[in-house]
Amino acid sequence: MASAADKFRPHVSLAYSRVSGAPLAPIREVLAEHAAIIPVTLNRVRLIDINRDERVYRWQVRDAPSLS
Question: Which domain of life is it from (predicted)?
Answer without folding.
Answer: Bacteria
